[in-house]
Structures are given as C-alpha cells and as structure tokens.
Amino acid sequence: MADDVSGNAVAAALAVLGRGWRQRLAGRRAMLGATLLVFLVLLVIGSLNWIEAGLGFAAIALVALLVPAEVDAVEPEIVHHFAAGDLDEETVEIFADALADPCLILDRRSIVVHRNAAAASQFASATIGNPIAFSLRHPALLAAVEAARRTGVAQTIELHQTVPNETWHKVAVAPLIDRPLAEDEQAPLLVVTMQSLTEARRIDALRTDFIANASHELRTPLASLIGFIDTLLGPAARDAEARERFLTIMRAQAQRMSKLIDDLLSLSRIEMRQHVRPTAAVDLGMLLREVNEGLIGQAREAELTVTVDVPEGPTIVAGDRDELYEVFENLLDNAIKYGGDGGRVEVALAPVTGRPGYDFAVTVTDHGAGIESEHVPRLTERFYRVDAESSRKKKGTGLGLAIVKHILNRHRGLLTIKSRPGEGTRVEVLLPR
Hints:
By secondary structure, this protein is α+β, with helices and mostly antiparallel strands. Helix content is 47%, strand content 17%.
C-alpha cells in the first residue's frame, strides 16, 4: 500500500513537470540519490514508516525538479579550438574546397593530402599522396613550407614559373593551428593558397611597353623637327632651297606625330567603352562602299585595283558606325600599303553559316608579299611591326590592328589573319547582327 502511494506521488510530480523533466532529473540525480539514501536510513532505524518516507522523498524530488531554469547553475562558455588535431578530414576538405583560389593541404611530411578544384585545374602535377617538392620545385616555396611548419608563423612568397607558360602567384603558407607551437613541436597541417598575379603582371608589362613605345615613336619625329629648326636658324637661314626642302620634311614629321596622337586617343576612347556593346543599326554593305570610295585615290597611287563584292539589299548589324568605318578603313589601308605588289585587293561581304554567334563575314584579301607565320599572332599587339622601317616610311603608327581588335571586341566580333610569304594576306572579320 505504501509503495503504491509513494509511486503515485512520484508519477504525479513527474506529470506536473511536463516537457523537459528528463533533463532536469539527469542534472539532479546526485542530490536525489543522497536524499533517497537518508530516507532509507531513517526507515531502517524506525524513525519513519513507508508512507512518510515515500511522501517525503516525493515532495523533495518535486521541489528539486521544479526549481526555475533561471537559477540553474550557469554553464561555462564553450570555447571551440580549431587546432589541427580537433579537425576531422571532412572539415579540412570542406574548408579547402570553399576557396576560389588554388589550395593544397600538406601533412607533417609535406605530402599533399588534399587539393581543391582550382588547384587540380591549375596545378595538375600536385597530386594527392606525393610530396609537394615533386611538383613545385621552387626553393623559396619549399623554404616557406619548412619555416611555417617549424615556427607556426604564416609565410608569404612569390612563385614565378616559366613552364609550360609564364605565370606569377602570391603563395601563402599557413599552419592549421590556433596556438603557439611548443618547443621542438611542428605544425601538423599546412594550408598552401595561391593567388594569381599573372594578369596583373601582364597588364603592368603592357603598360610599360606602351609608354616606352609611345615615347620612342614621338621622340624620333621630335628630334627631326628640332634638328631641322636648328639648321634653319643657323647654316640654312638664308638658303631658300634648303628651307623649302626642310619645311616639307618637318610637315611630314608633324603629320606623323599628329596621326600617332590621334591613334592613341582613339585607342584610349575605345578602351573606356570596351564593355558597352553598341546598339545602333549599321548597313555593312553601304559602309564598305564608302570606305572604298574614301581610299580610291590611295589605291590609284599604289597602282592597284580594289573590288568590293557585297550582296544586294541591306546587311544590318548592331554597332557604332564610326568605329566600324575605322575598322575597315584600317584593314583596306593596310592591304593597299603592304599588299600593293599583288596588283589587286578584294573586299567581300557574305552571310555566314556554321559559325554560332556570328551572322556576317567581311574579308579583305591582298596578293602581296605576305607575312612569315611567326609574326601573324603578334600583328594586333600595340606598336608591333614586321618591318619597322618600312612601316614608318608608309606612315604607319603600329596601332592600326590593335585599334581594330579592340573595336571588334566591343562589337562581340572576331578577327582572324591568315598569311603566307608570296601568297598575300587574308583578313576576316566576323560580326553578329
């Protein structure tokens, strides 16, 4: 009977507790155990009977479990330690795979234990299971790896590779540990991240070359002008024939500088709008006829014939008319200047099929001396010339094809050049509608 009463009392108490009573009971089992032991002793020695002992224990248990949560002992703040020993393999891999830059994880022996997708793509030779020295034999990198492991301090170096292509990377080697290393202790894991500097270095080189080339192109005519002016002010001051000859040369040099400055300004203007695609409607057939008419005098002087073959009806593309005029004027001007030995130049416009993203093709073909194959890929570089002296004599600035390339990039077009010595040159421009 007494057992039934005490059991009913406990059940009633637990029912009052409701949700969460199991957690409270687990937290106070030591206290309740001690209380139960006291009541058992009192029961044995006869100080209490079964009913009194059961009711007393139930009452104490109920009071203990109903103590508000606010007065529970405050648990100490949990501090997460992300030392290498506390990280499982999956966590490390997730961390590496989340990085956009190439990332390698090295163990104590400098063996690659994981690489993310960017590292697998850009550093395919750095395979998992092989020491990093097998794939990246750069002394500064290996020294940084050793220093980071030994000191626990992150190291940063610049990695310059020339094979298979010239690349630059900023490499950071950091130990995966959150505390200072003890004496004679080494970092268990190292994180090697590589940030590409190749594009920045390429742009810096282009900027340096551009300034040097532009300065050189301007310095030569300026030196000629200064020399002729000094001559006219000195020995030829009273020589009418020499003065007329020198003034003619000075005018040509001044025009050369003016053309170069115009090309530089044009290139700068195009680059400023490089990512804004023009939307005006341009009739390519009509435009090509106008370009031909503008250069017909130059073609006659070169004693060659220019034929323009365009389809009947409108051939409309989205573009900037002035810029497209500059493209085809440059291409036809080059064909006349450098392909005039062939006696003729053909300009053709036709719709294209089988070239996704493009609708019209314009080809400019000359039958002149042609160009060696090693020069063709570099023809669109700024100031690049196959024959610098011949180009200057023909008033070339070395910027024409660079301007063409940038304009076509803005129009989402494509430029291809094919040439062989003795067979002339064929330039093709592909444009979308």
